[in-house]
Amino acid sequence: xxxxxxxxxxxLCALTAFEVARRLLEDDRDxxxxxxxxxxxxxxxxxxxxxxxxxxxVGFDHTILSALYLPGGAPKSCCPAVICLSSDEDKRTMxxxxxxxxxxxxxxxxxxVAREELVKYSPGESKxxxxxxxxxxxxxxxxxxxxxxxxxDGLSAEIATNFAAFDKRVAAAVCDGGLWSxxxxxxxxxxxxxxxxxxxxxxxxPRRSRVARRxxxxxxxxxxxxxxxxxSEAIKLHADCTAEGIPLDLMLPEIVSAEHGEYFENFVxxxxxxxxxxxxxxxx
Length: 284
What we know:
Helices cover about 50% and strands about 20% of the residues. By secondary structure, the protein is an alpha/beta fold.
């Protein structure tokens, strides 16, 4: 058993190292090589657990969504689960490779959905498909149906917000808090009127928190870094929600400097903070 635990720890460290390398590489062929190594490592991990990683499909009518599922927790346990929506840059397998160490650490099941598949459908269809994903998780014996959250990475943060507002079974959401919807509404007003919208902060504030008020679960907004949300708008939304008693938290990722004036998000620390937050919110 000790040997298995040590091998598992080594594999999880390797997955994190692969993700760091993938972000630093500029050549597409090198990146594809790293992605291939990640996929092979995840397959080996699944085999060691008896084929734990599972490809599944949900759908209605002629609408189909593929997902990648990995159960968490101890055998015969009833654990929380998170529906994870990838950014534009990540395939399902790559996001699973990045989040696998955290899923194991916190004893969570994860169901990975690629953004590129969701955006093929209308917003309404996407919400129904994600609800079917939640149905699937709720039906599994190892998942506590009362403790299922959603995490939208990058541009998928908006999808996570809309889904959490649509399906009241969602117990926690890492999302954009409705900021993208608010910005789009403001831009539409400017386009229709043909002039820049010059509303006061008192007029903008209720619109900014409009979607957040529809959430029946705690929310975490990740601002800056690879996130969709600007830091200044996120701070204003957090202040609005605090004043209204809406349970919305704010996280600012750590940005580290590199050579030639480049900056990178410390994704390891960011992911760790996100899953620590999910762990707290999804406790019994």
